[in-house]
Amino acid sequence: MKSCLIVDDSKVIRMVARRILSELNFEIEEAVDGQDALQACQKNMPDAVLLDWNMPVMNGLEFLIKLRQEKGGDRPIVVFCTTENDMEHIQKALMAGANEYIMKPFDREIIEAKFAQVGLL
Amino acid sequence: MNSADFQFLADFLKKGSGLVVSEDKMYLLESRLLPIARERGHNTLDGLVAELRKGTDSSLKVAVIEAMTTNESFFFRDTKPFQIFENETLPALIEARAARKRLRIWCAAASTGQEPYSLAMILKENAAKMPGWRTEILGTDLSSEVLEKAKAGMYSQFEVQRGLPISLLVKYFRQVNEMWQIDAAIRASVRFQKLNLMDNFTHLGKFDVIFCRNVLIYFDQQTKAEVLERMSTMLEPDGVLFLGGAETVLGITDKFKPVTGQRGVYQHAA
Description:
Largest sheet of chain A: 5 strands, parallel
Number of helices of chain A: 5
Strand content of chain B: 15-25%
Radius of gyration of chain A: 13 Å
Structural class of chain B: alpha/beta
Low-confidence stretches of chain A: none
Helix content of chain A: 40-55%
CATH superfamily of the largest domain in chain B: Vaccinia Virus protein VP39
Mean pLDDT of chain A: 96
Oligomer: heterodimer
CATH topology of chain A: Rossmann fold
Number of domains of chain B: 2
Shape of chain B: globular
CATH architecture of the largest domain in chain B: 3-Layer(aba) Sandwich
Shape of chain A: globular
Strand order of the largest sheet of chain B: 6-2-1-7-8-10-9
Radius of gyration of chain B: 20 Å
């Protein structure tokens, strides 16, 4: 079973994403911001990260840059999932090492398609 | 809708487009045709059917057929056929056509353009392997409404997220307000043309690759056989035909046989 860390400061979003990804057979961990996520990764590197951008304490982009510098931090497949839906943000995320990018609002079909594309399904 | 009206509509669609509508698809008739009925001042389909029965309004006939035959479409739909195209079909054709340097592809149910544009992006990504080649992608569909959308190459945020890798979105699209438009060079590499597969289409010439996915499922056996047989005359001797995941030629025509190890791909039987 593959593991996925869901990082979002919205409890509702985490719940929706958890339901979809559990059904796709992922073992789920949750984090409420980038700092929280980084600690979770240091303890246990997940196979995948579903990552919000705008969060308090540490945002998604900062987390991603830090993650990629961690030992084993190049391994997780990181899929952004954010309301930031302009080309500039997408390019910034890809440059920082994101593997895929979902523009909110999302649904099961989009998550499934994106996760399949990066080889997680 | 009463059963006489249903039968009339079913016969009308069968004759006009080859589409087979069974009784369990009644909901589909209602959801697709009610907007047209309302536009013409009817609250239910009864009035629409009455108008159709008169048979005098050809724009109504076209509108009804188009509404019933429009399909959902994604970029790189089902993934696998596009991987096969890029990793098997294209390298083989690049070798076989090394002298002629020409490649013709036909998407026979192009709908809103995602399939031909997906192929166009694959060709673009492989352009370095095809210097000096002339490639042509023809997208045809029964519906002029979907073809207008295809030509514009303008897609919603939802549409560009279904099947399209983000790297290709960044590379080949630009943002236009809330929409995403595929770039002009890709648009220019695909030609769209209205075509009913029930009509004769052999004038389109010979193709190296034909995509005809998820359209035969709407036809009855005899129509499927006719369409496939006409397509076989238009496919180059070493060309290939891609059908949808739920479609087959088995028991329908002996003109094609499956390509071993390539699901959904067919070649000339003899």
